[in-house]
Write a structure and sequence with these properties.
Rossmann fold, seven-stranded mixed β-sheet, alpha/beta, about 50% helix, Arc Repressor Mutant, subunit A, single chain, two-stranded antiparallel ribbon, about 375 residues, 11 strands
Amino acid sequence: MTTTSPTSTPVSEDRLESFGEEVFEATLAALELTVQAMGRELGLYESLRGTPSTPGELATRAHVDARYAREWLEHQAVAQVLSVENPEAPADDRRYTLPEEHAIGLLDEDHPAYVGALADFIPVIARTLEHVQTAFRTGEGVPFAAYELHDMQAGFTRPMFANSLTTEWLPELPELHRRLEAGEPLRVLDLGCGEGWAGIYLAEAYPAVTIDGLDLDDASIARAREHAADRGVGDRVRFELRDIGDPSINGPYDLAMCCEVIHDLPDPVSALATMRRVTAHGGDALVIDERVANSFEPSGDPIERLMYAISILHCLPAGRVTDTSVATGTVMRADTFQTYAQQAGFASVDELPIDHQLFRFYRPVG
């Protein structure tokens, strides 16, 4: 059926209804992710793990109010995150269980199925949306530190570093991997290291390797140092608060890596120039960044939708904090990266044959 809108434009009722359903589903997802974020922050999932609980028991262990605990538990059961042993019992007597599969996904930060950090993006948006809206009006940026998302960002990438960096990704650099496996005392530079998990897992896998991690976010560097000390590799993994485009950074390094950083930088060419300079003696360079389509296609692809949404809410504003920013944003097409690498002095860029839903793996050469 077709009707007419107030602007006299023909309107498909089916299309209108379908759009309304999509908005409802998106609203539901956003609200339920927010409730998950609360559950993680308040320690409710952790308190439930391995211990089926009534609202009162959960409230006691997690130090929260029993009535709020009951509402949260009932919602999580309705959403099928939790199971309930006795749904017919009085509300305060129902006993709720967190399935171990869900516990792994929500709590186990090293596990490849970990997705808990994704829910933490909702609070980030809540506290920075006004800043982003102001940036839209002024054309300015929003400082990375204002987002306070270093823990969430580290949580998102950590399971990939834990499970894939040394077993799947670095083997695609055959000569470097051979030297690592041979136990050579190689030097690695991690540019934009965040909370340092890539370097930490690399050091744990290869005891002769030393890693220097650089980042401009002081909160990230502080956490990285804590993680390295806690894991017993602080003597070989060192973190420094420093601009990764600083022309005084010198090598030699056997590997310079930059993981999910280039698209965020006001000046990506300077960071790539650092990579080229410190590996000029024959070291390898590895850049991991978002996998997006090679050209703009309004297809409804979920990955493309995700990347654009993150770009609008975080990456583009965070990358526009200087007057000279190139304003890349999350949706950095492959040809854009190749242009940056060539401007930094690399002769070419190889794309490594690593199949990943979210990331591309670039090896700048020459």
